[in-house]
Every structure is written in structure tokens, then in C-alpha cells.
Design brief:
- The protein is mainly α.
- The protein folds into two domains: about 90 residues, Orthogonal Bundle (Recoverin, domain 1), CATH 1.10.238.10; about 70 residues, Orthogonal Bundle (Recoverin, domain 1), CATH 1.10.238.10.
- Helices cover about 60% and strands about 5% of the residues.
- The chain has a two-stranded antiparallel ribbon. A two-stranded antiparallel sheet has the order 3-4.
- Strand 1 and strand 2 form a beta hairpin.
- The longest helix has 17 residues.
- The chain is globular and about 45 Å long.
- This is GD11700.
- Pfam families: EF-hand_6 (PF13405), EF-hand_7 (PF13499).
- One of its GO terms (molecular function) is calcium ion binding.
- It comes from Drosophila simulans.
Length: about 160
């Protein structure tokens, strides 16, 4: 198993982190902004405050400074830094359990389904400015069985699907 700073992570967890990184590299520039890192963290089951987020990101920049690695933009993470930041947190994470926690966080009325309103609410919480069409597109993409609502099965299937 790959090892990062003494923490063992599985190849599956590395793949999960790589998928999260690629999915949330919204501008496709090979790095994640703080906002994109937060979205990626949420996707792998981590609720995090803005202060905690910046502490995590800056810990990676500090590691680079200590180890004489050039730091160009300390508020952006490339894939290697993202994996290094997340590896210690992934050691004991069961991805489906993390997805269940994330799903439950989004499913505001706890009825077992995520609706357009739930997606709109989580986007507001995340500070995302999205149109009704964007929300509709997101819901259609995640609604794997096409029944007009997102079940836990749809959500997990979407999150495990290749990009």
C-alpha cells in the first residue's frame, strides 16, 4: 500500500482522492483553489469550516517550505499536495460510509431522497452561485435511474462512476 507520512492508504483511496481532485478542478488547470478543495473534501465525506480548510491548505505549504519545495501559490493545491494533505485523513475512511454521511447532510428532510431544493440549499451553503438550469443539470446527472429524484443508490453510483 502507498504510504504518506507514515499513514497507509489503499490504492482505492488514492483513486478516490484523484477522482475527487479531477471532479472539482472546475477550471481544469491542474490545481484546486481553496473553494475547490472544500468541494472535494465534502465529496469524500468531510464537513469542514473555512478556518479548518485554510489551516489544512497552509499546512501543506508549510511542509513544502520546511522541505525546500518551491511554493508558487500557497492557496492552491496540485494533485500530489492534495493527496499528501488527505492521506492521513483517509487511513480509516470507508468511502461508502463517507458518502452516506454526505448524502444525509444534503438530504435535509431525511426522506431518503435529495431533491432540487436540497441541491439548491447545499449550493447556497457552499457559496456557489448557480442558475436553476445548473441545478437541474446536476440533479439529472446524479439521478442514475431517471426517476426525478436522487436516492442514496443514485448518489453513491454517481460518486463512484468514472468522470
Amino acid at each position: 500500500m502507498p504510504s504518506f507520512s507514515g499513514n497507509e492508504v489503499t490504492n482505492e483511496q488514492i483513486d478516490e482522492l484523484r477522482d475527487a481532485f479531477e471532479r472539482y478542478d472546475l477550471d481544469s488547470n491542474g490545481t484546486l483553489s481553496a473553494h475547490e478543495v472544500r468541494l472535494a473534501l465534502i465529496s469524500v465525506g468531510y464537513e469542514i469550516t473555512e478556518a479548518e480548510l485554510y489551516d489544512l491548505i497552509h499546512s501543506v505549504a508549510l511542509y513544502d517550505l520546511i522541505h525546500s519545495v518551491a511554493v508558487r501559490d500557497e492557496d492552491r493545491l496540485d494533485l500530489k499536495k492534495f493527496i499528501r494533505m488527505m492521506a492521513p485523513r483517509m487511513v480509516h475512511v470507508d468511502s461508502d460510509q463517507s458518502l452516506l454521511r454526505t448524502f444525509n447532510m444534503i438530504d435535509r428532510d431525511r426522506d431518503g431522497y435529495v431533491t432540487v431544493q436540497d441541491v439548491r440549499a447545499i449550493m447556497v451553503v457552499l457559496g456557489e452561485v448557480v442558475t436553476d438550469d445548473d441545478i437541474k443539470d446536476i440533479c439529472q446527472a446524479v439521478d442514475m435511474d431517471g426517476d426525478g429524484r436522487i436516492s442514496l443508490r443514485d448518489f453513491i453510483g454517481f460518486m463512484h462512476s468514472p468522470i
